Amino acid sequence: MMSAPASASTALPDLLFGGLKAQAASGWKIERTVLPGWEDARAAFFPDQNGRVYERLLANLPVMLHAMDRQGRITAVNRHWTQVLGHAPEEAEGRLLTEFLAPGSRQRLLQDIYPAYFLSGILSAEPVDMICRDGSTRSMLLSMNAYRGAKGRIERSVCLVEPAAAVAQAPAAVPHLPRETEALGRIAGGLAHDFNNLLTVIAGNLDLIEGKLPDGDAVMRLREAAGAARKCGGLARQMLALARGGAGPAREVKVNELIAGLLPLLARSLGEAVEVMADLMEGEPRVMADPGRFESVLLDLAEIAREAMQEGGRFSIETHAVPTGEAGAATNGGTAPGPHVLVAVTRTGAPRADEAERARDIAEAFLTRCGGRLTVESRAGGGTAIMMILPRREG
């Protein structure tokens, strides 16, 4: 039995994941800890009023998913999670996530991962060792996405757990997926894509109505509804990524065409107060990428910009040719030699402290797969530029 350092408890906020502080202070515990009120607080992944269609979908996806409440206790697990780790749903739900981690991973979660997660609300592919029901451990990659309440506190987290070896071998494993899994992924992807588009229209129209009403309770309720719709849109994009197993196959993408087709959706997402512009290079630059992930990255970067431009501003996407030899200099030598295309997402307004970290969380996995690199710059006079440099396909 190893004891947690004293700093592990002081690093955690008082109001978030409160049950973990006592655990960190008293030492690591393997035995079950069911927190009071669990039976009353039991929740699903995405409670909805439409026959729990998405709930059933997530329950049967061939990836490991669990949801947690603000105290870090598991509120739901899907079928694949229980199959891989061996714990039945009733054995997992109501217990702290830390109870399923080996001591070293538990200590790192409390000391390092959770404090950073409380600030960013995002965790991507963090290596952890999880305890199976038979007592063995498995090396996993843990990703988490936070959903905050009206006061900005983390109320719920949806988590993806992936076997580390499977992720490392993903390109070779994809062709061998069963046909049923591929069909389920296609269905989930189609539903999530349509759901996200509908929610974007809803949020955009709510913003338009809000601008025509005087301040009051009605406007406050409209803002809450628009915010909820945007959060649901983020969930839909996350579902789309999960349905594709994190990333679809790379194929030739016409960058300018993809951006031009996305502009109406971006305009509705950003709202009437934000001017949306595109400055696209001549010709038709092409890259090898997963087009769905490319669109999701741009939409998520636009959401960061929207949060920073509550009073309005200008949002722009630019494309520029980067000649051979200059791409490496632009990214500290991080890209392969040859011609590249620069995709710059810029906004006006004051810089935000967490913007660069959030942009990297969103874009780095996509860019690594494409052989590209990311830089984030705060510009003189205000504004931020998030620049993605991608190898350009010739011919």
Question: How many domains would you count in the coordinates?
Answer: 3
Contiguous low-pLDDT stretches (5 residues minimum) are: 1-43, 167-181, 328-333
Please provide the count of β strands.
Answer: 12
For the biggest β-sheet, the strand order reads 2-1-5-4-3
The percentage of residues in β strands lies in 15-25%
How many alpha or pi helices?
15
First and last CA, distance: 61 Å
- Output the CATH class name of the largest domain: Alpha Beta
What does the average pLDDT come to?
A: 75
Taking the sheet with the most strands, its summary is: 5 strands, antiparallel
Task: Give a description of the structure.
This protein is α+β, with helices and mostly antiparallel strands and 395 residues long. The protein folds into three domains: 7-168, Beta-Lactamase, CATH 3.30.450; 174-246; 247-395, Histidine kinase-like ATPase, C-terminal domain (Heat Shock Protein 90, 2-Layer Sandwich). 45% of the residues lie in helices and 22% in strands. The protein contains 15 helices and twelve strands. It has helices spanning 7-10, 18-26, 38-41, 53-60, 79-85, 89-92, 103-120, 164-168, 170-173, 179-210, 217-243, 255-270, 291-308, 326-330, 355-370; strands at 64-69, 74-77, 122-131, 137-148, 154-163, 251-254, 274-279, 286-289, 313-322, 340-347, 373-378, 384-391. It has a five-stranded antiparallel sheet with strand order 2-1-5-4-3. The chain has a five-stranded mixed sheet with strand order 7-9-10-12-11, with helices on one face. A hairpin with a 4-residue loop joins strand 1 and strand 2. The N and C termini lie far apart (61 Å). The relative contact order is 0.08.
